[in-house]
Design brief:
Blueprint (H helix, E strand, L loop, with lengths): L1 E6 L10 H9 L11 E7 L7 H11 L4 E4 L1 H4 L11 H12 L4 E3 L4
Helix pairs in contact: 2-4
């Protein structure tokens, strides 16, 4: 399966995404159901309030992503301990734009 990952822009300078890549490659944690996946895109939400996440998710699907994955910094607040206050709205907008044909995974590790 090919996936696109969306991460929190505020965590970019303190997290290189290495654990996201590791669990995707190994098919562990959030990827236990899918098994190992190929990451075809790794983009930020674009910054608060995350409105760019919708068009970025669509772009990754147009380029072959079968699923959009929200990195754990979005929902769980890793590594800063502060989950995105806009996460529910971002996820809902992405789901609405992409429809039921694209799998959404809302965490990575």
């Amino acid at each position: 399966m090919k996936v696109g990952i969306i991460r929190c822009q505020l965590t970019e300078d303190m997290c290189p995404g290495s654990t996201d890549f590791k669990v995707a490659r190994e098919g562990t944690l959030a990827f236990e159901e899918t098994g190992p996946v190929e990451i075809i895109g790794f983009l930020s939400c674009g910054g608060c309030s995350g409105k760019k996440a919708v068009t970025r998710a669509k772009m990754m699907v147009d380029r072959g992503a079968e699923a959009i994955v929200f990195a754990s910094c979005m929902k769980n607040g890793n590594p800063i301990g502060y989950p995105c206050p806009h996460f529910a709205a971002i996820k809902g907008a992405v789901e609405k734009m992409l429809g039921p044909g694209t799998k959404i995974i809302d965490w990575t590790h």
